[in-house]
Amino acid sequence: MRFSQNARRGMAGGSLVLAALLAGPMLISGCSSVIDGKPVAAPGTGPTEPNFPTPRPSITAAPPSGPIGVPPTTPANPTAPAGAIPLPPDENGYVFIETKSGITRCQINKDSVGCEAPFTDSPMQDGEHANGVHITSAGSVQWILGNLGAIPAVTIDYKIYDAQGWTIDASEAGTRFTNGHTGHGMFVSVEKVSTF
Question: Which region ranges are annotated with the description Disordered (predicted)?
Fold first, then answer.
């Protein structure tokens, strides 16, 4: 049987399309694979946090703006306890702290406090122990997996501080955060977290 020139071209083109359709999945499957599990970096294989400069703000008190010896008529934060050291927020309304031990780091804004630490008794999240806890001024608590990254944290001493309406009472046993408006908060240590 003889085919016309056009018929032969059509069959040749169809054969190429058919060959491409049949070979395509085999070619693609050879270039991809799925590996189950979670990536885990070996110690010393790279940075664990972003590596960019972050200035650490100073917590030194500003000189008085009014006459010396005359107390201000209203405190900067009316809910802050007397003698609390004020921690000014950054331009986005956040205060970043690190405990004196260097183990716990937290970010604070008017609405919430979130802390990161190697907790020894935290709940499991996605098969791992949570390393973060977050509480809102309304008392809502959430455990998370995360990394605060290279935050410009101020290292606090074992004293009382005020940040964005939260009183921070730092001690060797842990750090207590209390919202001055609602009374809700949490006590954070590596061994335990208590909310109220």
Answer: 40-62
Q: H/E element holding 49?
A: none
Dist CA 21 CA 32 (whole Å): 18
| Residue-by-residue DSSP string for 124-164 | EETTEE--EEEEETT--EEEE-----S--PEEP-SSEEEET
Q: 108, 94 in Cβ contact below 8 A?
A: yes
pLDDT in tens, 16-51: 544 555 555 544 444 444 555 555 544 444 445 444
Length of the chain: 196
What global pTM score does this model have? 0.62
The Cα 145–Cα 124 span in angstroms is 9
Q: List the domain boundaries for the chain.
A: 85-195
User: d(Cα 128, Cα 125) in Å, to the nearest integer?
Assistant: 5
